[in-house]
Specification:
By secondary structure, the chain is of the alpha/beta class. Helix content is 48%, strand content 12%.
């Protein structure tokens, strides 16, 4: 992959420009509930003007703002919103930015030729779409946002923003949100664009809110059932916290899609960060009995796999090993699946670490007290690694979590940042307990000394 990255990097620099990014043309994430879009997660999403949408439904992706950013890239200039990659590339030629990786992963000569032929203002159909139809969701995970959770939105309407913290206040008075899909002009535009854009798609990812509670998700599955797309990969997120009959309905579609070759493959992604009461605290609305019943239903009634998106955060540190034990238990029950790539884990996981909001950042924790938990978890993974055994951990899973452990061990925030984060930690969880009738101290007794330290900092800041 490193060789390909360097090859495509040099090729595109000569053929197009040294700042060109294919993702700006061929990738898009669209939040229909707020009418926003961007082509990767580093630039903030921007508003899709309704007049542009009325003229052409593909403005869900091809906004005037995005076209101007494409123009800059074709001219060898650097759009401001892409500063994350420019910062990485400024470190030296040996550093690989996300722009370089994206270019290497989605590069095709015909795509480049089309862009060079038609210029920056051509309305292009992307090969990858991530779509959010609405914010309807029965969960309100602490580090989520009302934009992506109707339950969270209702909480903020009732209690107001978390104005006792500096980070993650969750103000909603500035957000223009469409609460009903049938009244949303952006949803209408999506269905106008769909007959055209479905012809170019390689990957369609459905996110939320909770996609399985949204009508448009099922309309989409029905459309693909009637008009198959055998080259399309569908990725769907779900918290698996709904009625079992909904998961059975999903399973029937997945089985149909795969057995009748109506799509290339289907991937289901779910999220947990811990196990037991701690998991239910982090993700308000989660009932692990309901979740596990749905998990087993899906794996029993389909031959598909499930991938856990484990957002490693400050509350996962002390209990993560318990979730990993469950992973091994489930891998024994569902050991492998055969597909074009060979034998694979049916139960998969990834361990990206959370950086925002600050009060959920693991680097606020005292190293001497909490690194032993991290090292113990890493050792547990290492003791259960057996490459090629679908009931055990892989080398890659070990090295990915080792990266998280090393990141926590080596990251040292300034006294000012620590004070800000720890003050917010105390104020945030006190207020969350009040609003949700929960008890942090009871669920996380091992955080007692840390929370007391945070309380002292918060009260000192309040009185200063």
């Amino acid at each position: 992959m490193d060789e390909r990255i360097n090859e495509i990097k040099e090729k595109l620099a000569k053929q197009v420009s040294p700042t060109f990014c294919l993702a700006k043309f061929h990738h898009v994430t669209i939040y229909l509930q707020t009418g926003e879009t961007h082509s990767c997660y580093h630039p903030p999403p921007h508003h899709i003007p309704l007049p542009e949408l009325e003229a052409d439904a593909s403005a869900l992706h091809n906004t005037e703002q995005k076209k101007q950013e494409r123009k800059l890239m074709l001219e060898g200039k650097k759009p401001k919103g892409c500063q994350y990659c420019w910062n990485v590339e400024a470190l030296g030629d040996e550093y690989v930015s996300d722009r370089h990786e994206r270019n290497a992963s989605i590069h095709r000569e015909d795509r480049v030729k089309e862009i060079l032929k038609n210029g920056y203002d051509h309305h292009i159909n992307p090969e990858y779409i991530e779509i959010s139809f609405g914010n309807e969701c029965q969960f309100k995970c602490g580090y989520c946002h009302p934009k992506a959770s109707s339950s969270y939105w209702k909480e903020i309407e009732k209690f107001g923003p978390y104005d006792m913290v500096k980070n993650h206040r969750l103000d909603i008075d500035w957000i223009n949100l469409f609460k009903r899909e049938e009244e949303n002009p952006y949803v209408k535009a999506w269905w106008e664009w769909w007959p055209e854009v479905r012809r170019t798609l390689s990957i369609l990812r459905i996110t939320g809110g909770e996609p399985l509670l949204q009508r448009s998700t099922w309309d989409l599955f029905k459309n693909i059932s009637e008009y198959p797309l055998p080259e399309l990969e569908i990725n769907t997120n779900s918290n698996l916290g709904m009625s079992n009959r909904i998961v059975k309905r999903l399973s029937r579609y997945v089985k149909e899609f795969e057995e009748e070759n109506k799509i290339k493959r289907f991937k289901l992604f779910t999220s947990l960060d811990s196990w037991g009461p701690r998991a239910e605290y982090i993700r308000t609305g989660l009932d692990l009995k309901v979740w596990e019943e749905n998990f087993h239903t899906y794996l029993t009634e389909t031959q598909a796999n499930i991938t856990f998106m484990m957002t490693f955060n400050i509350l996962a540190v002390t209990n993560f090993k318990e979730l990993l034990k469950k992973i091994l238990e489930w891998r024994e029950m569902y050991p492998e699946v055969q597909n074009g790539a060979g034998q694979l884990h049916r139960v998969r996981f990834d361990t990206p670490y959370l950086k925002e909001p600050l009060q959920y950042d693991m680097n606020l924790l005292p190293k001497n007290q909490f690194m032993p938990y991290m090292n113990d978890t890493l050792q547990f993974i290492k003791d259960n690694v057996k490459e090629g055994d679908s009931t055990k951990f892989s080398d890659l899973e070990y090295w990915k979590f080792k990266r998280v452990v090393d990141y926590m061990n080596q990251t040292n925030y300034s006294p000012e940042r620590l004070a800000e984060g720890r003050s917010d930690f105390y104020n945030w969880f006190n207020e969350l307990d009040r609003r949700r009738n929960t008890n942090f101290d009871q669920i996380f007794p091992e955080y007692k000394d840390f929370k007391e330290q945070c309380r002292q900092i918060a009260e000192t800041k309040k009185n200063s």
